[in-house]
């Protein structure tokens, strides 16, 4: 029975007693939703990355996944633009969503956000710190291969997305072309190069005290990749710019080195006025918050412009701000985009908790949005509201994290989760073999992708839980990565 109390006609229970039971029952449900277990959600949010791994897998919690993409790199250099063929090792890394393609731009952003989460919350991560480092290293080992395999070439992805998206098959059965894509001085991609530099530099900070030699390798590679990005300007993705990644990359290399050379690079890049979004394809707000710490906490007014831009961004997010450009659903969820809205919610929430922390460190700094006085608690309370909504405090009483609670999405848009595992169904499922009965079927997914945060509900707080509705039901690594920091912030003790 689903949330119903049934009293037979012969029951002697009084009406008042019955009503008290109903009230108590409903309050119990409300209590569960309003007191989320941040520690449990944090642990699950990190386990999720195991389900996205490519390459040779070790024993892991998500046991229904197997090794895949073991020939990645064998077609390196073969693409529509580059006909020179060589064989390199491009195994590893992550599939970024419910498909079987490795896109380095969102993967590197995922890595940067996970690293930033550790940098800001290493103590609050508690027992999840080693697992978070492991998740970061799974990505950086791959990104190092991409950056160091061939001189004057940065590999930026593996797998033909057009071919892959016509298939519904497990990663373990992939039979589409594993084309390797890369950028060069003559075919530049300063956007993906800048983000790769940011990821490697941020991760170098994470490993500095636990693996010094690895940290040095990450940082030296980050410097080389950033130099490549700066010298060879141009956007790899036609619909994206590249200045935000250059600012982001230079900001992270500066944070890792504290070398004034990178301050000059930052000044030469600039940009990012009037921003009200933060995501894998727009890093300005993240760069501003990152760099604002120098002004806020260290009183270095060389970085004052970034503090101002960071606070202008917050004013565009806060619902009571006169300059807010952000919509909220009736249930209280930040609503930025119709497709995969929770990726924007988690990324912005990460900035809210991080800037709140900086403000608190800066002698309880405040700022104003018109007449609205913004304190650290103002930002932190809004962040907590978003996290609680994702974990089930919403009109549908649904957790949008798979495996958290009892009411969560059961038909997520994810190939590996929706198809029987190799352990259960050893026969190969070909490119089109997974559509019937699995993709088009109404049964819940046979494999639980623990911790996966889906695209989320629509503007009316409604979630259909349909596998084919990828805009709402597909999980992504970058959605999860941005949630790790806020969960740690609320789960841990200072």
From TrEMBL:
Coiled-coil segments, which residues? none
GO process terms (BP): cellulose catabolic process
Q: What's its EC?
A: 3.2.1.4
What keywords does the record list, in alphabetical order? Carbohydrate metabolism, Cellulose degradation, Glycosidase, Hydrolase, Polysaccharide degradation, Signal
Glycoside hydrolase family domain location: 38-486
Q: Which PROSITE patterns match?
A: GH9_2, GH9_3
Question: Which reaction equation describes what this protein catalyses?
Answer: Endohydrolysis of (1->4)-beta-D-glucosidic linkages in cellulose, lichenin and cereal beta-D-glucans
Segment forming the signal sequence: 1-34
Active site: which residues? 413, 465, 474
One Pfam family here: Glyco_hydro_9
What are the recorded GO MF terms, alphabetically? cellulase activity
What InterPro entries does this protein's entry cite?
A: 6-hairpin_glycosidase_sf (IPR008928), 6hp_glycosidase-like_sf (IPR012341), Glyco_hydro_9 (IPR001701), Glyco_hydro_9_Asp/Glu_AS (IPR033126), Glyco_hydro_9_His_AS (IPR018221)
State the similarity comment. Answer: Belongs to the glycosyl hydrolase 9 (cellulase E) family.
Q: What is this protein called?
A: Endoglucanase
Q: Which organism is it from?
A: Salvia splendens
